[in-house]
Specification:
With 193 residues, the chain is mainly alpha-helical. It has two domains: 49 residues, Arc Repressor Mutant, subunit A (Orthogonal Bundle); 139 residues, Tetracycline Repressor, domain 2 (Orthogonal Bundle), CATH 1.10.357. The chain contains eleven helices and no strands.
């Protein structure tokens, strides 16, 4: 690989390459060499921009967590429209149909990555924790609009939906669940709304 060639948006290029490797080869196949090969750059490029590989992975996770802000806003804005179950099923499919499931597997696979993430996020698993907050905010808005029972236990419903959604999508070897399966899971948790 030639040296001295400027790479535009090196962080994004490396993060996107890491996602592709993670989705294709799983957490055990995600190495600095695999990432830089996938990105088409020298291994030293990664190490010039990040202290080490686990620092790179921590930044990848945090970047992907920050990308959830737009999805959270869209879900919150959907309160009062469509059906509650339909909105939740769509949100879970968008969340877990992405690289989120693979990132959760990566976090649980790498002890050093978990330790680094604990420095800024002392509780929970990044992505799942933020997704739970996203769902809780939406459910609260729907409860405030009267589309959920006034005594709906948001603190129980939100993590139950995230856990059930994660389990539906967690099998990387098979096809993703169909829309009917996701909708059925949501209605089982929240009732038919």
């Amino acid at each position: 690989m030639p040296t001295g060639v400027h790479i535009r948006d090196v962080r994004e290029q490396l993060f996107d390459a890491a996602e592709r490797v993670l989705l294709r080869d799983g957490p055990s196949g995600l190495t600095s060499r695999a990432v830089t090969t996938e990105a088409g750059c020298a291994k030293g490029v990664l190490h010039r921009h990040f202290a080490d590989f686990d620092a790179f992975l921590a930044e990848l996770v945090l970047d992907r967590v920050n990308r959830m802000d737009a999805q959270a806003a869209a879900l919150r804005d959907s309160a009062g429209t469509g059906t509650v179950a339909g909105n939740l099923a769509g949100a879970l499919t968008a969340l877990f149909g992405s690289v989120a499931v693979a990132i959760v597997a990566l976090i649980t696979f790498r002890d050093e990555l978990r330790a680094r993430l604990r420095e800024t996020r002392p509780a929970g698993i990044p992505i799942l924790t933020e997704a739970t907050v996203m769902i809780a905010d939406y459910l609260t808005a729907e409860r405030d609009l009267g589309r959920l029972a006034p005594d709906a236990d948001i603190d129980a419903l939100a993590p139950t939906l995230i856990g059930a959604g994660h389990l539906l999508f967690a099998d990387r070897t098979g096809p993703p669940p169909d829309a009917a399966a996701v909708h059925r899971t949501v209605t089982t948790v929240i009732g038919d709304r």
